[in-house]
Design goal:
Chain lengths: 354, 354, 354, 354
């Protein structure tokens, strides 16, 4: 192991997000993959256990690492990246967090009052919830959650617009990629020549999580969700990666479209200031072409592929206090593994990783 | 030719909509295909000229009919079904209408004050515009237009809701099928593993046409567009047929969801009263499953395949004066050829076909 | 129940083939669906249990029928259509056959010496194996199997060519549809923008089964497999239904291409003579276009949709004793449920259904 | 322009292959893009003219370069990469070759006796045809052609097997990607949920070109095509990039499968010896998994993405003098632009670029 690198466990390592963790951490300057945790695949080598979906191919070292059953109490790592199904996450995320700094992309604890739900560019101040978490839970470690893959792109784009124009209502319609359903996920017989206008639980999650992330810290040390109204209608389409979302946004202040584009383009956050390894130079890329963003062309855009949100078709709504736009974000990178790694990087710089 | 059948010309017969006309008119009880008109294909037999896209296969008779160049002044038919690109339609639709009852699905004349833009179930009274048309144009024939394929399903669903709840604002996002772009249309390299969030001119057309169709006849004999605000964001997806639309609807009166579903289910129009051959028993089919409508499963639903609009996911919006739903309509049947044939059937019964 | 109709059980009724059985038997003139058998879905109504994949929608009657657990010893039906996974079929097919005339499309017993593997047009004489079966097994019922979905189309096309030219070697490459893998089957993440050049066990099955079907009855009452060499290379592609196969065929006698097409076109079998309800007028449809057959256009061709094999691109190979062609057959109709129903129809006419 | 780099013209720069040339030459160590030639796009900037298909995005410099009309007589470059439709190539390839070293991927001159048809690893000795070309044509420049995209992968794999086992007959079936048809190419309505078993002229080209590349130089300085029999059956499938081919190979000498895999793995050519920039370390990658190669996973495999051919499913045929395998090669990289660049690199090292 490279000297000084932090030892990282990937929990749920054979899944779609687990595969992104492997890809993004294999050559990471600060973290080193030291433990692979799986459930059904425990006891196998990673190369035998995983049905690898991407064209990227892990190194021999990783392919020959054993996958182990989850055993939070006996592991010895510096940080845990957990990507588990909801039920399993209810059991395991807190057991890992009791001992280690843990970043989870499961929905299980996202809405807990003492658990930060974080996009490092959007609400880094919510890390202060960890004080209450430590007091209340008595953990040696800590738990931070990464949001729903659809909420991530949406919150990133709404944040600077909210600061500038004060949002009243957002009506968003999504066209979500297949990798968002995990593996095996959506049967091909369901999606070829088809669209499915439904994803279980997704619409409520996107609305509630976005409101939490846009929320303010109160004096009592909790987060008060933002009162903006958010309506979400989801659709699954036949794309591999990249969630596309079209939003109709109503604001309190009048909107100038060109100014709004500048605000989006100029948006920067703590990760950019801190020059974190996984921070894209531009969190939001605004395109002027009338037919962009497109999933296959834009999902890997930017200086750190998959970490920027690409926005296009920015234009007025029905009146001057409204705006329309289409955004795209890579659901398993910015919407999961990449955002979680960025959280861990920021936490390391802020001294949370011990 | 069967005795008593009206002789129909199909103009633009090799295109996607032209192919639907052939399929739907081949065994029609009232109309008989007598003339096939094409441009690049003129001089060939239909079977040589057409790149047939559907699994339906036309009869030998049709395949061996010659395709002729457009020559409105020398044709001799009882009704014309015209499906031409916009520019060609500017030239030809009026030349045909000068001599024959003509139903066109081109956008060229849809917004003309004296041209009915018609869905027989929605605004049959707009046929009265034909009086002004005859006076003003001095034609022996007449011109009625069939709306944009996306506007058709939308207007059909909004009509009964508007009558019941008075609509204030509609925010709609579409997932449109490939056949809507005609043939050859969208290159496969653009749409496999992809979505295109843009269709030239479509968004404005859908809004304006829907408002015209929901509009009222004024004392001066013209149509005053409805003041409802309509925002449309379009997307092209990799489905063959069937436009899916998700709508967020704001109303003046409070909405009861179960009542709204009943209103949609119970909606009937003149075509149902008149028992027209191409009229579906139920113009709107409401489904209760949480994941319907789906294009591949529902686009051919109903007693006349492709003529019903299928609605699902009917639920409240952000407050009691709002409603959300997803609708599906077959873009080349109800959204083009089928609606035009239904128009012609209604006009025949009302004595407009001479 | 309609008087005089035979009561049919569909075993494995929620699967892809089970759904085709429902569709094809709902209005069958001779059979009536009386029992639905499922495993995981037992105890539910069919409408709750099935994830229906096709645009066809079963009647209320069927949707409200209970799905029952397999219980061959207590059922009371006239014929069993069984469509089970291999392991389950090993257990259940013989238990059903012990009491009822049973047609199974599982591979489990296809290669048993006393079990006919049947395409009614190809080897109806193999039904005579049932004598040995009855003697040896002591069953009140009987077991006939329907071949692998890829073998069905291939054997149908090879049969008349073998009779005419004596085949020496067949090198076939397949492009198989998703429904052939059952449901949920192939994950969408595996097949969008992709091809999988592998299907477990398929290549050996296609070769061995085709040779058995082309085989001759010996004096001892068994079938001697045909000595033709058959090489199969399979590929899964992103089509919903319809297996396409391209074959390079070497023959003992010189081949005249036009004559070969005539032989294919003129091919008729017992089902056509007997005018069975599910028998297509032409078992093989030969197309002359250079780019046919195509799955989406041709899989439902013919007088009984999905029951004809469509052949195209018939042309010479590298010398005069060779032939090349591409064939398409609907894998869940002629390749499974449809062929099994045709077997049952023929058996009824021949007095096997008691 | 970087000092010492050779100035390259890309002719046909907006097409699918043109786009690959841009991507692969933008940061090439030896060549610099100096001239962009297009036909319909002449007069525009490249960024306006091109409908860019890939997720890679060209630099500002390239996007702002003007596209010029073809004018071979007035250009001033060191090497020409030409990617034109057949008819245009008949006119222009020789006009370019009259003045400049020209590598063309058009089929127009591939079969000319004095024009090398080259895969640098397979038949570098065929460059000696250029002597006769210079004598006979009196050109200052020269013309070398890069083979058909399907022939490239096939010839690369057959070459070492031919040397080892002497091939008698090859029966190959292809599953070809959409980018092989250029842009706009295959309409999406033709290929979603479908396969097209036909590509105009392709089958003859693949056979004839492969035989030329495997052919030997004769004493008279021409190439005598190899006598191996090659049957090709082509299919277009819904993949973006990567032609898959399954081959049944008959040999004169007995084949040991493990040895054959070693022979393929160990295959190296002049480009590897010369360490050319675009030469992959391993021209052929052999995989042991039973379900590989797959287009989406393997088309960019190897040290220079898209330049290696990936082979899998190597196994016996019907007897010991036969072999079966499936191969994949990236059709616009190794099958076009990449192979042409590799040709140019080899020619530079051999002194052909002046």
């Amino acid at each position: 192991m490279a000297k000084g690198k932090l030892r990282a466990a990937i929990v749920g390592v054979t899944g779609m997000v687990g595969q992104q963790y492997v890809r993004m951490l294999e050559n990471h300057p600060w973290f080193e993959i030291s433990t692979l945790v799986g459930n059904r695949s425990a006891g196998k080598l990673y190369g035998e256990a995983v049905e690898w979906i991407d064209s990227y191919e892990p190194s021999e070292r990783i392919m020959n690492m054993p996958v182990r059953v989850a055993n939070p109490e006996s592991d010895d790592v510096d940080v845990v990246f957990a990507s588990l199904p909801t039920e399993a996450a209810y059991q395991l995320d807190t057991r890992y967090a009791a001992r280690f700094p843990t970043v989870s992309d499961a929905s299980s604890y996202r809405m807990e009052p003492d658990v930060p739900l974080l996009i490092p560019e959007v609400n880094p101040d919510h890390l202060s919830l960890l004080e209450a978490q430590r007091r209340g839970r008595g953990w040696r470690g800590l738990l931070v959650t990464s949001p729903n893959c659809t909420a991530t792109g949406l919150a990133m784009v709404l944040k600077p617009l909210h600061d500038a124009y004060r949002l009243r209502k957002v009506v968003v319609s999504t066209l979500q990629a297949l990798s968002g359903a995990g593996y095996p996920g959506v049967p091909s017989l369901r999606i070829i020549d088809n669209v499915i206008p439904y994803i279980k639980g997704e619409e409520d999650k996107v609305a509630a999580e976005t409101k939490k992330m846009l929320g303010k810290l109160t004096d009592s040390g909790t987060v008060s969700p933002d009162p903006v109204g958010i309506s979400v209608m989801v659709h699954r389409v036949a794309t591999i990666d990249g969630h596309l979302e079209s939003a109709y946004i109503e604001t309190e202040r009048p909107v100038d479209v060109e100014e709004a584009k500048e605000i989006l383009r100029d948006f920067r956050g703590r990760p950019q200031e801190m020059k974190l390894p996984t921070a894209p130079e531009r969190p939001i890329i605004v395109r002027e072409e009338e037919d962009r963003p497109q999933p296959r062309l834009d999902r890997m855009a930017g200086s750190v592929p998959g970490m920027s949100v690409v926005v296009g078709r920015v234009r007025r709504g029905l009146d001057e206090r409204s705006l329309r736009l289409t955004l795209l974000s890579h659901n398993t990178i910015r919407g999961a593994a990449g955002n979680a790694i960025l959280i861990a990087e920021m936490m390391r710089e802020l001294g949370y990783l011990g």
